[in-house]
Amino acid sequence: MSKFFEFLNSSVGRKWLMAFTGLFLCLFVLVHMSGNLQLFKNDGGKAFNQYAVFMTTFPLIKVVSYVNYLLILVHALNGFYLVNKNRQARPVKYAGAKSDASASWSSRNMGLLGTVLLVFIVIHMGHFWREFHFVPMEAKQYITKIGEIPTEGTPFDTVITIQAKDFKEPRHYTINQQDMSGRMATYEVVELKDLYGEVAEAFKSPLYVAFYVLAMIALSYHLAHGFQSAFQTFGIRSKTYAPIIKGLGNLLFAIIIPALFAAMPLYFLFIKH
Amino acid sequence: MSGNMNLTLKVWRQKNASDTGRIETYPAKNISPDMSFLEMLDVVNEDLIKEGKDPIAFDHDCREGICGMCSMYINGRAHGPNKGVTACQLHMRSFKNGDTIIIEPWRAAAFPVLRDLIVDRTALEKIQQAGGFVSVNTGSAPDANAIPVPKWNADEAFNAAACIGCGACVAACKNSSAMLFMSAKVSQYALLPQGKAEAKMRVTNMLKVHDEQGFGACTNTEACEAECPKGISVSNIARMNREYAAAMLAGE
Ligand code: SF4
Ligand code: FES
Q1: Residue B235 maps to which CATH number?
Q2: Which residue in B178, B175, B72 sits closest to A89, CA to CA?
Q3: B228: which chain A residues are within 8 Å (Cβ-Cβ)?
Q4: Cα-trace Rg, chain A
Q5: Residue A160 and residue A144: Cα distance in Å, rounded?
Q6: Domain count, chain A
Q7: What does the alpha-carbon distance between residue A136 and residue A206 come to, in Å, rounded to a whole number?
Q8: Domain residues for A113?
Q9: Same domain for B100 and B135?
């Protein structure tokens, strides 16, 4: 055991810790992004609101999300420790350093990019996560006629707003009642906290959207270095695989994921308002 | 001679280890483009001596790129603007008439400045002494093929052994990390049968000393590889990361 801690405290071990937590967070970012794609659905937020309930109640996911918060902390604290330690390794700076001639900007600014992301995470969670968990929020009642092909004029996919004070917990039930033509029909009723509405409301502010987009640019640069760097740290590097890891990693983690994330606030600001 | 250049040097001057030091400006007059960088400094020093001033102190020995002594940071780059050369192999034709050249010593907590451009690189030797050797006497050169070594391993070990311990990797690294140097030493032995026996001990002892000497932790910026005059590859660092984790986490 002492050897394990000696490892973790060594400069190489701390890199391993950085790489391990970082790769886990890459995976989280991937899942988070794919789930959030439901914001783009034109269904009054039903799918997204259902997804929010699932993510916060399904036991396995709850466990994973707490592990995730912990690893964010470990990644950040270890990062600050290393930045500080590495600064001490060069007490006197060069007068004329041309650092960009030998290393990429993102690789040299991981601490800065990480700090931007940490601030973003705090603000992001302090907003949506905190409000979803602890603040009464407006809810939506989604009513869908089932069991029969809907005829014209029937209330199909009705959305009714429930005041925050009237909403207790998510519900899912069916009712039988007359439809508009007077025949009996079955309706599925789903009542959910309207996180979607919260999101749509928040992204009406151009300043807030700008902040989100900026954070996603930071994410892009952070992962452009971070993802492939983790493999180098684990010693997974060969002439064949290094370009593949770099290429695919950059495509997915530095371009596709941050771009789709950034598209969400922009979508609410410019298209869905 | 035609084509000779006049340059302005901004050089770090520091009397001794406890002096704070400062950048001073000197003219370098009538410099031939065929001179090496160190020859240019020799010319400037002659002028300084004639003026009754202290010449600029700098380390040098072989002047042909194999001893690793000529440590200097030239215009913001370790060993100057060219790839794959030491300062002694840098020629003045890489500069233009009228250029200003900033010359600084290696900057790292582990490399204290002794005087002007001369730094103490004992810390690298300490890492080497911690494990960069094979303990047993392996005798005289064995017959060819007596010990089978795959060609690939031989080549990789040879490439790693090309490290001249100049410290440019530390100087260029934003973290002042000596991982490239250390990984070259680790690799040159780990890849060969004679060195394998002590591989675990070697990498753990060397890393311990590396960290103790005040070198930073590697963040894979790969500036070291870009600035190394001997083209040592960061794949050696990957190998060392593997070796170290295996030594610390697996077995016993
Ligand atoms: S790895 Fe390259 S830069 Fe570093 S000490 Fe060896 S030769 Fe010099
Ligand atoms: S003086 Fe020997 S390498 Fe430059």
Answers
A1: 1.10.1060.10
A2: B175
A3: none
A4: 24
A5: 11
A6: 2
A7: 25
A8: 2-135+206-270
A9: no
What the block records as the tokens of B171 is 């100087």
What residue owns the CA closest to ligand 1's atom 8? B166
Phi, psi of A7 (to 5 degrees): -60, -50
Whole-angstrom CA distances from B180 to A222, A226, B134, B218, B232 are: 23, 19, 20, 9, 7
Do B48 and B130 belong to one domain? no
DSSP-H helix ranges across chain A: 2-9, 11-36, 46-57, 59-88, 105-108, 110-124, 130-134, 195-202, 206-233, 241-249, 257-266
Chain A: residue whose CA lies nearest to B76: A97
Q: Are residues A47 and A165 in the same domain?
A: no
> B11 in a domain, yes or no?
yes
Query: Are residues A69 and A151 located together in one domain of the fold?
Result: no
| Co-location of A186 and A148 in the same domain | yes
The alpha carbon of residue A14 is apart from the nearest alpha carbon of chain B, in Å, by 8
Q: Say which of A3, A11, A94 has its CB closest to residue B211.
A: A11
- pTM assigned to the model: 0.91
- Could you give the CA distance from residue B87 to residue B81 in angstroms, rounded to a whole number? 10
d(CA B87, CA B229): 9
Residue A199 included in any domain:
no
Per-residue pLDDT of chain B (252 residues; tens, 9 = 90+): 568 999 999 999 999 999 999 999 999 999 999 999 999 999 999 999 999 999 999 999 999 999 999 999 999 999 999 999 999 999 999 999 999 999 999 999 999 999 999 999 999 999 999 999 988 876 787 787 788 899 999 999 999 999 999 999 999 999 999 999 999 999 999 999 889 889 999 999 999 999 999 999 999 999 999 999 999 999 999 999 999 999 998 865
Return the structure tokens found at B211.
């960290």
Q: Which residues of B touch A112 (CB under 8 A)?
A: none
Beta carbons within 8 Å of B181's beta carbon, 6+ residues apart:
B124, B127, B163, B165, B167, B169, B170
Q: How far is A87 from chain B (nearest CA, A)?
A: 7
B231: tokens are 């083209």
